[in-house]
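WARN retry 2 of 3 for item q-0093 after timeout on previous attempt; input resubmitted unchanged.
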Amino acid sequence: MYPFSFTKVSNTRDALNAGRRGGRYIAGGTTLVDLMRETVERPGTLVDISDLPLHGITVTERGSLRIGSLVTMTEAAADTRVRTIFPVISQALELSASAQLRNMATIGGNIMQRTRCTYFRDVTAACNKREPGSGCAALEGVNRSHAILSASDDCVATHPSDAAVAFAALDASVHLLGPDGQRKVPFSDFLLRPGSTPNREQALRRDELITAVEIPAHPRPLKSGYLKVGDRQSYEFALTSAAVALHVRGGVIREAKVAAGGVGTVPWKLPAVERHLIGERPSDTLWAAAAEQAADGARPLEHNRFKVELLKRTVERQLRIVGGSR
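OK item q-0093 returned
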């Protein structure tokens, strides 16, 4: 680990000033400290923002659910409103990591975490995300865990967050605060596909802070859930996952929200699956037909071709779990 200075702030003004001077924000530190220890990240200054007034979970007048960026994963997963209104979020959080990590890690940090690609974390390997222009070792290397969707010729690393898959499915937005004031970014625009600039991962402007993640109100009743498939049941990153939310009224699916994780460079919305579901009556035949479209556009690599079929089966299984078997 390289030497660094450390400062703690208690208000957003001081935090933004420290960020303007080149400081890196830290709260739980469950990702950044790991990367510093591995010398992947080398910040000169860490700015502890854990005392900022960005805690708390509220339901707004519009009926949306707003989760402060410094709410821990444990707090969000256990909150009665989250569990009742959007169980898909609670389930995704509880399947994300060990209890010890969930007690420290924050919602803002979770969606900001960097890829778990082994080549990214190996400073001797070529990685355009870590060192632009150096190449992507995963393209010709062992790429079993890498992306089959939204990859580019410069990067095939997957985004590791489970909670982000639920947020993507539910059309969440990210609230930001910077020197120019507040703004809100749709979650689908917040995490960036790699393209030719994989080193730029979020739509954050210089010195901005994440203040909250907001999930809009959805028609009720809304049944939702999260399914994660990995090499082992606990403390493992997804080979594939599915976040599903369905609004069924009068025996017909009126609204469908579906996203996948573990298969894309960002949490991957599945609009073709959603369109296939809306206006139809739940049935095993429908789940299977909709899930067939989950891997549309997939570009598998040498070692991860199995993810195409695995993704379809995961989506079909979770549609059946949430929507019922008939």
